[in-house]
Amino acid sequence: MIKTIGAAMLTAGLPLEIAKTDEHAALCGSNAIAAATPPVGATTPPITYVFFSTEEAAFIDAAASRLIPADEQWPGALEAAVPNYIDKQLAGAWGRGERLYRSGPWQQGTPSQGYQLPFTPAELFHTALAAINKELAKAGTPFATMSADQQDAYLRSLEAGDKDLDGVPSGLFFGELWEFTVEGFFSDPVYGGIRDMVAWRMIGFPGAYASYYDLVDRHGITIDRPPMSLAEDAHGHVHMNPGIRAHSP
Amino acid sequence: MAQRLKPVDVVTIGVGLTGSLAALELAETGLKVVGLERGAPRYTVPDFQSPAIHDELRFSIRKAMMQDNVKVAVSFRNNSDQTALPIRRWESFLPGQGLGGSFVHWNGQSFRFQVADFIYRTHILERYGQKFLDACGPELTIQDWGVTYDELEPHYDRFEYLCGVSGKAGNIKGQIQAGGNPFEAPRSREYPNPPLKEPYFGAIFRKGAESLGYHPYPQPSSNLSRPYINPLGLQLEQCVFCGFCERYACEHYAKASPQTIILPVLLKNPNYELQTSCEVLRINLDSTRKKATGVTYVDAAGREFEQPAELVLITAFPLNNVRTLLLSGIGKPYDPKTGEGVVGRNYSYQTTGGPTVFMDESININPFMSSGAPGTMIDDFSGDNFDHSQLGFIGGQYVGSIMTNGRPIEFHPTPPGTPAWGLEWKRAVDRHYNHTILIQQHGTSAASRLNYLDLDPTYKDAWGQPLLRMTFDFPENDIRMSQYIADKVVEIGRAMGGKIVVRGGTERPYTTTVYQSTHNCGGAVMGSDPKTSVVNRYLQCWDVPNVFSLGGSAIPQNGTYNYSVTIGALTYWALDAIKNKYLKSPGPLVHA
Q1: Cβ proximity of B17 and B103 under 8 Å
Q2: Do B238 and A6 lie within an 8 Å CB cutoff?
Q3: What is the DSSP annotation of B238-286?
Q4: Is B252 on the interface with A (CB under 8 A)?
Q5: What angle do CA B266, B41, B62 make, to 5 degrees?
Q6: DSSP letter at B59?
Q7: What is the pLDDT of residues A140-186, one digit of tens each?
Q8: What confidence score (pLDDT) does residue A112 get?
């Protein structure tokens, strides 16, 4: 009997009729936020910065709000706490060069050879932001105090890549900033961004559900259910098959 | 100095697909086998479990299952006039690390190559002639494998049943089967399991392709369509379409991997010993340089060991097989100036890319309900399935809708003309995320005398050894091929009802900054002539007969398909020769 545990039983433990939002929302209790109800007017979350200085954070906050702006329908990157995500990524192992080959000699390569600077992501951000803030302070208009149009124009000038930010090509910096912004907008809330899973609810990505076996051939159905974060996964299921040894002897 | 360990019969360098399969075959004959794996041990429980496994940032973006670039990378340049620089972070291809190797994070796309692929040069010359091939590109160095499809068929069959491949046969012993791929090479019997359920994108592709007269079929998959007990007695489960397959391990025992189809049996065999976190530095040779005496490796604590062995099997990722040969001085390194030498020669890759099809907002694709190999595809443009005589290129691609996921950091398509960021970008992502279909073109990569692997003169790994250096660009032949097929596939996208169809196709130069394929191919190729191959038809090194190099490094040029199942078949083929010929009389299995 116990041998027959299989996918049928695995899926049996899951909310199969997840297309019925109400039923599932009831299961999820007060944590459930109906997908169809965006948090209009969401506020900017308070962030405790551990990597960025106050001046750096002011730039990142303002840039986030222009890179993915809020509108009447959905919050943007700032409201989704993307700056918090970037701050924690840069403060951690990734910022310090995790999984990055870091031996020289250093030289500029072709575009097809990829990233070839000695900076870790953390060093790259500190260096580029210092150069940006210095330049704008000299001009008397810190980025955060510019109008939205001015901010967009300045970001475009970085994107165009013709500025030298103390050794960091501005286009490279912009590319990194944009990548981190997209990551923070869409990656699981356990990493400190995507507050209230707004971006997932916007596009309809359900998150870390484990099975769609009974839905995959129901072509074109509307999936209207609250998304699930890694941290929220309360299935309590263990996908253990007693017929297969879990560990080496 | 290195501590000398007790001699064993066999050592495998790497414990992925080829290393675990070969070890099992040999341990069962009574030989003592040691498997050396550079990565960590890991098992379905507890290492691959939910919810942690469904983490796009950690696995897809930060590439947690891949080789650690901090310790070792590959240097790269497009041509030999450039200076190669290290690939400091993986993007274009993703070599796995850890017990089970890349066969843990693969997608389970489970193809056989076609009959003509194994006799590629012979086939092209017979059908089109030398003049035609010269016109495709005088630099092309395509060649025959030295083994035929018919010889490999029983091994394909055996490996598919080990994996529990789910699919529909298109050709059983020459009889075309309804519902399968009519271009398929003849099989001796049906797949062990029926095809996976067809997701919506596949159904839409099927309809579009059929309306143009093509021949859609369900992609063969090693994500299983139903519970299955493989011939080793190991139980696999039904794929649940979680949408976290490639770049991830399977939490459900539903994807064939060493952990699910081999290791539980191998690890119980008293003749087998697994050693993890061991970096093999080189294969040691005796004074004749024609016999290997074992290997030298460093463990996680930095201690050096010498493991003597009668038989050495190189069973690493293809690029690492080639590097191991070069670091050990086995075989003559290839010199692109003279065309002489063999190790590193005929490195090839895979041509990829395909159109993006933007659909009406009323069509919910739900791409997150998916599997690693859930595609519906056509082979009308694969390999040499169509007449090339007026086309000026060789090769082809399979075409299909194989959307493996809807993970949003990786997948948030916007149509051309959308700003790269800002409010309009956000609105376009919202509009198109659930209403877009990707079609894949995926196919041949012709070998060229200009493309090769050798040791980098400058950059080193954490153990002080030279990195592998890759010199590669797509031959013009492959660009012409890919662009020709791109035109055809755009028509399929329109027939699917695409409002906007963005054309695909491969371009030059090849770049390491965009993911394309992890089917790095060749560099230690098999063949019947030691002047153009490193290993003979049984994957035995010509120069050092007690060393075999198993895996994708043996494939002389890439065929249309993802090669994992072919690697499995080649491994069974080589092991059959080792067990039934080599062990009875150790020495060269083929005399040049």
Answers
A1: yes
A2: yes
A3: ----BS--TTS--SSS-B--HHHHTHHHHTT-TTEEEE-S-EEEEEEE-
A4: yes
A5: 135
A6: I
A7: 999 999 999 999 999 999 999 889 999 999 999 999 999 999 999 99
A8: 98
Say how far apart CA A220 and CA A15 lie, in whole Å. Answer: 19
The predicted pLDDT at position A231 comes to: 79
B30 three-state secondary structure: coil
Q: Whose structure tokens read 């675990």?
A: B20
CA distances from A186 to A215, B145, B541 (A): 23, 46, 49
CB contact under 8 A, B56 and A187: yes
Does pTM top 0.90 for this prediction?
Answer: yes
pLDDT digits (tens, 9 = 90+) for B164-196: 999 999 999 999 999 999 999 999 999 999 999
Is B368's CB within 8 Å of A205's CB?
yes
Using CB atoms, which residue from B66, B241, B513 is nearest to A114?
B513
- Among A125, A49, A43, A31, residue whose Cα is nearest residue A76: A43
Q: What pLDDT, on a 0 to 100 scale, did the predictor assign at position A42?
A: 56
What's the one-letter identity of residue A247?
H
So what's the pLDDT on residue A238? 33
> Which pLDDT score, from 0 to 100, does residue A43 have?
67
Considering only the beta carbons, identify the residue of A98, A114, A186 that sits closest to B512: A114
> Has B442 been annotated as catalytic?
no
The size of chain B, in residues, is 592
Residue ranges in chain B modelled with pLDDT below 70: none
Q: Do A100 and B70 touch (CB under 8 A)?
A: yes
Kindly determine whether residue B88 and residue A116, on different chains, have CB atoms separated by under 8 Å.
yes
- Model ipTM? 0.96
Contacts of B243 in chain A (CB under 8 A): 212
3-state secondary structure of B116: helix
Main-chain dihedrals φ then ψ at residue B34, nearest 5 degrees: -115, 130
Output the pLDDT for position A8.
Answer: 33
B499 neighbors B297 (Cβ within 8 angstroms): no
A149 chain-B contacts, CB cut-off 8 A:
none
Over the stretch B345-402, which tens digit does the pLDDT of each residue have? Answer: 999 999 999 999 999 999 999 999 999 999 999 999 999 999 999 999 999 999 999 9
Domains and CATH numbers, chain B: 3-45+97-582 (3.50.50.60)
For an interface test with A, give the residue of B20, B43, B44, B54 to mutate (most A CBs within 10 A): B54
Q: Do B89 and A182 touch (CB under 8 A)?
A: no
Angstrom distance (rounded) from CA B155 to CA B163: 12
Q: CB distance A100–B89 less than 8 Å?
A: yes
For residue B58, give how far its alpha carbon lies from the nearest alpha carbon of chain A (Å).
9
Q: Using CA of residue B44, residue B45, residue B48, residue B49, what is the dihedral sign?
A: positive
Average pLDDT, chain B: 98
Check residue B234 and give its pLDDT. Answer: 98
B78 and chain A in contact, CB less than 8 A = yes
Q: Tally C-beta pairs within 8 A across A and B.
A: 237
Among residues B123, B215, B519, B591, the one annotated as catalytic is: B519
* Helices H / strands E in chain A, number of each: 8, 2
Chain B 411-450, residues with CB within 8 Å of chain A CB atoms = 412, 420-423, 425-427, 429-430, 433-434
Q: Please identify among residues 496-555 of chain B the ones whose CB lies closer than 8 Å to any CB of chain A.
A: 509-513
- CB < 8 Å to A186, chain B: 56, 408-409, 412
Q: What is the largest CA-CA distance in chain A?
A: 76
Give whole-number Cα distances, A145 to A59, A135, A137, B358, B368, in Å: 10, 14, 11, 39, 41
Low-confidence ranges of chain A (pLDDT < 50): 1-41, 233-249
Instruction: Parse chain A into domains and list their residue ranges.
Output: 2-35+207-232, 54-98+117-203
- Helices B564-577, B149-163: crossing angle, 10 deg rounding: 110
